[in-house]
Amino acid sequence: MLVLELGILLTCILLGARRGGIALGTISGIGLVIFVFLFDMPPGQPPAVVLGMILAVITALAMMEAAGGLQFLVETAEKLLRRNPSRITFVAPLVTYLLIFGAGTQHVIYSLLPVIAEVSRKAGVRPERPLSISVIAAQQGLIASPISAVSVALVAALAGFEVGLADIMMVVIPATLVGLAVGTLSVAWRGAPLAEDSDYQARLKDLGIDTEATAAPLAGKARRRGAGACAVFLVSVALIVIIGIFPELRPVHGADSAGVPLQIDMAAAIMVIMLGAAGLVTLLFDASPARAMKGELMRSGLVAIISILGVSWLGASFFAANEVQIIAAISSVIETSPWLFALGLFVLSILLFSQAATIVILAPIGLALGLPPHLMVGLYPAVNGNFFLPTYGTVLAAVSFDRTGTTRIGKYVLNHSFMRPGLAATFSSTLTALALSQWLLG
């Protein structure tokens, strides 16, 4: 029966991933109906806390976008890129990392990718180099961001194990920066310069690629509103980081029967701060709620929420019904070879196209198998497997924006531009995180 149930689980995931969008969540709902109503399996629990945190963060981001804050953030990043055009292979991934780290979502990279493609082309730098590593940098910045969905999912999973946000960040931030450096070096001199690329020179004769439409930059009052909204959001992020590092700063609301102070947990703190930030942006910077609801970030965020709701609930039901068999079958293997759990994170993230959903599903399994919390933190960077199949949104966007044709999906599908930097960054960041977690948390 376990094999049949696993087959249904994987089929739902594969069909949903293939259809894209909210299909990952909706098709998982079909599997959940089969599990609960036909197989009489326990329904498990949807990840309500994780979904609440994601919704709060997305709400703040959407209001910031409606006020022009997101455009201001991207324009600031653009200026940094344009000041160092010849060094774009090194500057672009770092700017991308910082942008995603601050925003907590990879979706802002879509506005940055055409800038990277244009600046690198005009500087004579092969766009494949900065574009490929920038896509990977977005993934590294995402798992390091204290407000990303995947980070809050890990914080929630480890909440009862005395491993907090500060512990995770002091391991993951340096580890992902090491991974970013290794990934950048892996592509820094990849391929021929544009002036020597015969394929590009042939395309030049056929394509008018020098004229590109650009959006009107923010100016005057609109720019001030955008800057203010961006400042409110970034201050909120800083506040979350501070109370994560110094938990004694979190509010206390009474005490329990034993006299132990009742302190707000990190998940609730994130939700309260993000909703408060959204409210301030609404009132102070004339952010339109209607525009926020129609914005790209809100739409993308709702897709993420529905997908995580469906697939993680389906996984929770499967695990609840087969917990004893699963743990008995693989606990000894995981305990003696913890790298296999890292492989599981990597492979499932490929199938789910979601680091957050992967953590929601696998983190409880790893903890149930007896993996120490510090080891879970060390293996965490292995969750960045989205690049492996060239079907992820950021990968496809980078290929589309590179009009020189240097960023490509290879003849054999897997030999694409993102494989080398992706493997280099993920492998090196995971090894670094393992070493740091053992040293700092072990």
Index terms:
cell inner membrane; 442 residues; membrane; mainly alpha; C4-dicarboxylate transmembrane transporter activity; 19 helices; C4-dicarboxylate transporter; Anaer_Dcu_memb_transpt; single chain; two-stranded antiparallel sheet; 2 strands
Structural class: mainly alpha
Oligomer: single chain
Got a strand count?
2
Q: Between the first and last Cα atoms, what is the distance in angstroms? A: 39 Å
Mean pLDDT: 83
Q: How many structural domains?
A: 1
Largest sheet, spatial ordering of strands: 1-2
Q: What's the alpha carbon Rg, rounded to whole Å?
A: 22 Å
GO molecular function, one term: C4-dicarboxylate transmembrane transporter activity
Transmembrane segments: 20-39, 51-74, 94-119, 131-156, 168-189, 226-246, 266-285, 297-320, 326-352, 383-401, 422-441
InterPro entries: Anaer_Dcu_memb_transpt (IPR004668)
Catalytic activity: L-aspartate(in) + succinate(out) = L-aspartate(out) + succinate(in); fumarate(in) + succinate(out) = fumarate(out) + succinate(in); (S)-malate(in) + succinate(out) = (S)-malate(out) + succinate(in)
What's the SSE blueprint?
Blueprint: H1 2-19, H2 23-38, H3 48-66, H4 69-83, H5 88-103, H6 109-122, H7 128-144, H8 149-157, H9 165-187, H10 198-206, H11 220-245, E1 252-255, E2 261-263, H12 266-284, H13 289-294, H14 296-336, H15 339-352, H16 355-368, H17 373-379, H18 393-401, H19 419-440
Antiparallel strand pairs: 1-2
Helix pairs in contact: 1-2, 1-14, 2-14, 3-8, 3-11, 3-12, 3-14, 4-5, 4-6, 4-11, 5-6, 5-7, 6-7, 6-18, 7-9, 7-19, 8-16, 9-19, 11-12, 14-16, 15-16, 17-19
InterPro entries: Anaer_Dcu_memb_transpt
Function: Responsible for the transport of C4-dicarboxylates.
Family: Belongs to the DcuA/DcuB transporter (TC 2.A.13.1) family.
